[in-house]
Amino acid sequence: MGQLRRKVLPFSALVGLSRLKLALILNGVNPRIGGLLVSGSKGTGKTTLVRAFAELLPEVDVVEGCRFGCNPNQQDALCPDCQAKVDMGETLSSKKRPMRVVNLPLSTTEDRLIGALDIERVLSEGIQALKPGILAEAHQNVLYVDEVNLLPDHLVDDLLDAAATKVNVIEREGISISHPSDFVLMGSMNPEEGELRPQLLDRFPLHVSVGSEYSIEERMELVRRNLAFEQNPDAFMRNWEPEQNELRQQIIDARALLPDVVLSDTQLRAIAMATDALEVDGVRPDIIISKTAITLAAFLGRKEVGIKDLQLASQLTLSHRTRRGGLLEPPLPSEINEAITKAHNVAQKQDRRKSPTQTPPEKQSDDSKSSGRRMSGGKFGRQDTFAEMSMGEKGKKKLRRK
Fold this sequence. Notes:
This protein is 48% helix and 13% strand.
């Protein structure tokens, strides 16, 4: 039986939460970023926005008939069934399907999460005896955990193993069966209800903290749209379909442009110097900042990464990460911007010294242009500019009052 799909407010119709919208879109453009953690008090629209984003997720290639959704283009990450077919010389038939959001309820059992094995059937039928779990459904999809900070420890451990290795391993009575489980991990939490284990916190590549700082006009518009949607969901969705299609196309265009975006050695050096100066734990943040900055440039239609891309990517990446072995709190946005700016200036000077015959690169004009560039046209674009997203909700209001 198919799953019942509830109608939700269109992503483009949701009011405010500009930075969260952008972080979700970046994961849609480049699933290799790997996910997002959303924190905030109850009633701020965290879960609503994540669920609405499902309608904008891109398509992926899957092996037709595969229970685990294997990607035929990834020969080194196939389930035992698909691998056996390849070993026998068969060509894997493929099809495209949209990514979807797979929910991980807090009440989930371990067998439901990782999958269940019938030992007697395993001995006779092999992997066919495996009943796939949520980690199998999540392969090439988004795995969403609402109230992730309340997830039981034994499920957290299983989730961490799969997130780290991109493989789910089920072991029972000395028998081990594995399959690919490469997913975009998204979670939401209310910090007032408890903190998140540091090991799991580090597995969320990006982080956005949302509040309820809506202006009076935004609150009024939010209510209007909710009432209109409840009165006639189909008509409301038809009204917003042009904006939805426009945003979908922008995501598709960004995915096509992504391989051509250039992150220079100067910028890479600036990222490394900034994270070192901020005393961020580990090197994973450097990789995530680089991926996010490249993706942001692609989404804004540029082939070169600018310093504002580095600043915003760094804010999204570092706002939840421990420093100096957990002794320091995550850096503030102002600290991050200052560190990136100083590191970028120093990196430019160092690279000029190494290449004295080259003329110094001119300041990228796209930085000033992108600061006012809109994310998309229509109703979504009229509200949310790149400059507003860089400042967050409070800064956005100050800008509008001027």
